[in-house]
Amino acid sequence: MGLIIQGVLGAFHLIFSGNPDIIEISLRSVKVSGIATLIAFVFGLPIGLVIGLYDFKGKHIVRGLFNGLLGIPTVVLGLILYLILVPLGPFGSLKLIYTEMGISLGQAILVLPIVISLVAGSVSLIRSEIRELAITLGAGELEASIAVIREAIGGVILSIVAAFNRAVAELGVALMIGGNIFVKGSALNTRVLTTSIQMYTARGEIDLAIALGVILLFIVFGVSMISNVIQSRLT
Amino acid sequence: MTLIELKGISKQYGSQVVLEDINIEIKKNEIMVIMGHSGAGKTTLLRIMALLEPPSKGVYKYKGNPVKINGFFRKKVTMVFQSPVMFRGSVYDNIAYGLKLRGIEKKEIRDKVRNVLSLVELEGTEKATARKLSGGEQQRVALARALVLEPELLLMDEPTTNLDPTNVALIERVIMELARKNNTTVVIATHNLFQAKRLADRVAHLYSGKLVEIGDADKIFENPGVEITQKFITGELRSE
Question: Cα–Cα distance between B34 and B202 in angstroms, integer?
């Protein structure tokens, strides 16, 4: 217990003293996962909308597939991506292994099903009544679909938040694709919050691990709270 | 003058036949009440007329021409549902939606919204959140949202079910005024016989997906032509 209290006190000291390494690692985490969320959103939103708005053959299989992928173990995805992205792998020439962009792409793949499933789910919940209402007021198919999307905005925001939080809090992809590289002043660093927490814990530097854990929690709760405010304003 | 014509309309969901060979002509500016028990096919018939679903068989004509699902007729017909569905946002947003789709200017939209709100006795509620209104008020917003478009054909599916008598009276008064003054043809589906008597110029009686009788309201209520309608009016008919 004493170790934990000591660690927490040391963590707050590190946070409020403005440790440059901690700031750099935290900002990198937000940046890498932010890019991952953006990529997942750009691809996931249209896919989720199509699944939510339209009926087509095999729709249940597609939805089931993406729902199944929600729980993919990050280490398994990390391993697959590692084998693909290493220099001798099929996409080795892209030189993404041990880079920030490599982590972002890996995390984007990880959170893509979250965006798709939540967008499709929220759209399909309200699709029928809002679409029909819009049509009876003179909307065409496109205008009716836009009306449905506007009504499902809460679900869309939730998908972004859930995707970001999953990305920023995952370890497997960041560790296996990023490699937890950190050299002071280097532009090629890939260390993020989760890989640092794992490393400092393994090394016994508990105060540092706790400090980074507290920051990670702040980021996750902060993003959720901001999204709640936006959602309540919009809905 | 005949506004719309349904010829041989049938609707089937899988093996279940919901409507069978429905033939109805609806005249311009009349209030036609489609009455029948729950499950008789009234809502399905209205949904076909509102272009929300195609018939399995038959022809739907507007002023003598077959209606196309995405044609211009879509902007001439509107529907009020049994349970009011509100868009997110204010009462103004809800009522202005259809007007915006028609490219009407902002100032004109503001005036029209104000006028129609006055008609349904909801003056000054433009900024209120639509979904926070009571059920009766939401139904009046739904009616205002349909009326503001000045439709040629207004379809209403059990519009006053679950409403208190004050809201029922208000909605019925608006419907009557609308048909008399605005040249709007109104089709109302209801199982409420008293409402049908109060509102209808003509009545169509649906039973188990079949049109059993159609004619002038006075004549049908006083002297129904078929036994099944007689039993419906006297309350002896049970739904199938």
Answer: 9
Which residue in chain B is spatially nearest to A128 when comparing CA positions?
Answer: B52
Interface of chain B against chain A, CB under 8 Å?
50-52, 70, 74-75, 77-79, 81, 85, 87-88, 97-98, 101-102, 145-146, 149, 155
Residue A95: which domain range? 2-234
Contact state of A138 with B145 under an 8 Å Cβ cutoff: no
- Nearest chain A residue to B50 by CA: give it: A136
What is the number of domains present in chain A? 1
pTM of the entire predicted model = 0.78
Closest partner CB to B74 (pick from A138, A147, A234): A138
- Over 70: is that where the pLDDT of A30 sits? yes
- Cβ contacts of A135 on chain B, cutoff 8 Å: 50-52, 74
Instruction: Give yes or no for a contact between B144 and B171, defined as CB atoms under 8 angstroms apart.
Output: no
What are the chain A neighbours of B97 within 8 Å (beta carbons)?
A: 134, 137, 147
CB of A173 closer than 8 Å to CB of A77: yes
Q: What's A174's domain CATH number? A: 1.10.3720.10
For an interface test with B, which of A122, A130, A133 has the most B Cβ atoms less than 10 Å from its Cβ? A133
What digits encode the pLDDT tens for the residues A61-96?
999 999 999 999 999 999 999 999 999 999 999 999
Stronger pLDDT, B45 or B161, i.e. the higher one: B45
Chain A residues with at least one Cβ partner in B under 8 Å: 129-130, 132-141, 143, 147, 150-151, 153, 234-235
Q: What ipTM was reported for this prediction?
A: 0.89
Sheet strand arrangement including B57-62? B16-27, B2-13, B57-62, B65-66
Q: Is A209 exposed, middle or buried (0-12, 13-18, 19+ CB in 10 A)?
A: buried
Q: How many other CB atoms are there within 10 angstroms of residue A79's CB atom?
A: 15
Q: Pairing state of beta strands B31-35 and B185-190?
A: parallel
